[in-house]
Amino acid sequence: MPNLATGTGEWRRIAARGALLGALMACTAGLAGQSLALLRLPGHVSTLARAEYDRGEADASLGMSGLQLVLARTPAQEAALQQLIADQQNPRSPQYHRWLTPAGFGARFGASDATLAALSSWLRSQGLKVGRVPAGRSYLPFTGTREQVEAALHTQIHTFDTQGTRHYSNVTDPGIPATFKGVIAAVSGLNDFYPTPGVRTQPGARPRGAAAAPLPGVYEGAIGAYQYPIPGFVGPTDAANIYDLTPLYARGVDGKGVTVAIVAESDVSSAQLSAYWTAFGVNQGQSFTSIAVPAADGGQDPGETRDGNEDEAYLDTEIVGGLAPGATLLLVRDKNAGVAVRYIIDQDFAASGGKAAGATAGVGIINFSFGACEAVEGAGNTSINSAFQQGAAEGITITVAAGDSGAAQSAPSATAGCLSSSDQGVQGDVASTGFAVSAFASTPYALAVGGTDFDPNLEGSAGGAYWSRSNTPPTLYSAATHVPEMVWNTSCGNEEWSQYFLMASTLAFCNQANLAAAGFTTRPNPFIEILGGGGGVSSCTSLSAGACRGGYAQPVWQQGVTGIASFGGRAVPDVSAIATRWVICSFSDNPCSVDPLPGNKSFFGTSAAAPPRRRHHCTRRSNAAAGLGVRGRPSGTDQSAALPARGRRIRLRGQPHGLQRESGCDHQPSVRLLRHHPRQQCPALCGRELRRHRKRSAERVRQRR
User: Fold this and answer.
1) pLDDT above 70 covers what percent of the chain?
2) Which of 43, 477, 681, 698 would give a disulfide with 237, using CB separation of 3.0 to 4.6 Å?
3) In this structure, are residues 408 and 419 in contact, taking their beta carbons and an 8 Å threshold?
């Protein structure tokens, strides 16, 4: 294999620089108390560390884990890495699908032994504990107390009371010895504002006097705080029918041979998982293992948290296991999802510890259902992009939930382009600071997954064309075919909801203070809120004095494609799937029954949409393993599913801010490319289908009036 990373001369220069750094650190380690020239690393103060929440300096003994020095690659290494990833995706290249191991990545694109030794020596001289050197050599983990971290990095660590929760964060940018300029790209872990899960419980309550549905079951009849008679909920077989997966099952394609790593900030009960799969009739003895990131790698085991983090872990694992029962499921948990995903990328489970970790093969897919606004991450975007880039070179598809705030992701309201996390999903609130995207979804090495919802003007009632009135045993499905979808946008700006409630326009809908419907009392309009599938353009990958700078460029696979505009930056999401009405069993559902109400949980969010996308990739990899001739691109840069099928790209009704568009007819998301629907055969048919949809919608409005 040709050396694509560096030439002999470049390696000599790297080694010489490392040796010089080692000599300098050996000298400076014994010069305690003497001043060194400092280099400040900008953009490291979280926008969540706001003055009004500041409670002063943290206790000196505060333990800080999960700290990492993110190491910079040389310009030659970075250029060679980008070329390699491009070649790995090029069927004509000798490097096509020749994925690297973590150790192979580190040997070609990681820091040298001398550089790592110099950095380790410096950290230890400051009293800090250095963790294991990761195989990819892209970062160096360390731990210490608040006092030690402040002294080493010349910063201050304060405590903050934010929305009733105690946090800590640095309040000034860290300083490092100037001799490390060009070696340390960023320092991560200086605060505990960890990425947050996207899952949310479906609002809803049974109308007074409504009959209970049979147990177990997913059909509940007319319910919903939105005054909408929900005709059905989604379980594993419902999703399989909606996205036409059953023919693959019939061919034995069920994810076998693929390991899916699920990033979690909580542990789960394997017995509860088994109860869920059994209740839905899909229990095939799924292979499941849960591991914590070891302390030596900067890990902090969260245990079972019994909160939204645990809900998220159950949601992801139950859906993936229900849709891909043959896959190996590996839940990797840590208090910080960012630490967990980096740990996964640096492990070669197939070569070492595979049996102990439950991985029968190398990790092929990573599920990441957490998010944070680009502006909140600041310099942390450097760490995210570096890790996901390594994952792409290793052939790992990283699916990331695009977020649930439309085009404004969660952050303090004072942060430009970010939505206040306290405002998301709160009635009567509006987004006023512009657009923003999730930092984990916006890196071009992630597959960003947006959300869809069922179209209320087309799906009809239970017993209609799409939903049955009862659940078919043993898998309890009530959706036998694809149900028409729209972009998930639960706000008054959604044209479909406005039309359903007979409003003259979305503006009139947003100015309607109260809503009333048959069987319900009049109540405040719940659609005056900010809640919907995340989407937008990357615009804030770094901070300067608190102001946004940069943004990822529009990647090549988003250029020159019919229907994809020139956004001027990386646009998200890439694909979408149903994000509402998922039924799961979580920690509080004892015993586990798959009846969503009144006791069990029905969830929504793009984190619920990501697992069906992972199942799609499982089948693609499983197809390849079975020799079925499916040629995919399973690395982190796989965007083939985001491209339009032969059908013409159309505007989805109800899309938030006009940024989320998908291909295909009948408002189906691009995940539907798996269906090979005959109406995709020519653009004219898609155009006619769109006109039919508009005619049917108008007719329904006239009938209700």
Assistant:
1) 68
2) 477
3) yes
